[in-house]
Amino acid sequence: xxxxxxxxxxxxxxxxxxxxxxxxxxxxxxxxxxxxxxxxxxxxxxxxxxxxxxxxxxxxxxxxxxxxxxxxxxxxxxxxxxxxxxxxxxxxxxxxxxxxxxxxxxxxxxxxxxxxxxxxxxxxxxxxxxxxxxxxxxxxxxxxxxxxxxxxxxxxxxxxxxxxxxxxxxxxxxxxxxxxxxxxxxxxxxxxxxxxxxxxxxxxxxxxxxxxxxxxxxxxxxxxxxxxxxxxx
Length: 233
Fold this sequence. Notes:
Elements: H1 3-13, H2 16-30, H3 43-52, H4 58-71, H5 75-80, H6 83-89, H7 96-113, H8 122-125, H9 133-142, H10 153-161, H11 170-180, H12 189-199
């Protein structure tokens, strides 16, 4: 978009601080059941699922972990098999050698430093092999109280389209979002954007005409005067 158009669009929708609560409220109305797509039963399964989700889909991870979690229940069991066996068990998630190495390193550290339990805090999780900030954020948020905001490809794309950030780096995007999004919504906010990104604000062909945020979005292709009746001020 031309710079003049971008400025005009931002002027039309108003400051991001005035838009953030209406954005959250509308998405909550639209997706009251928004939650993580990964299937898990405990903290260890959550950590493994998120580690395996890199560079693949949640559907694919769930397909793999359905069998994986029948076979492995504790950190000791992940370490009890040869590396090649674990690699084969997670092969369908892609990058299976690197992921298996990270899983084994993490399981060893869990046993050595945390009594076999998944630690609760960001600095502790970031010590685990293969666990970057996004993974740690997901694990912490799913356990109850987010310490930050998860930024995946959907959150990155929608945050930019909605004019909530001008950054491209996920860490910098998160910094912008935590200053903007009220803390009580840090857990759910990424899920709302992810669900909306998969259903409406699609990467290549956003369905602006069906979007409940089109009058709040500087990237909308729908004129304000023709916004659908479900758009609320």
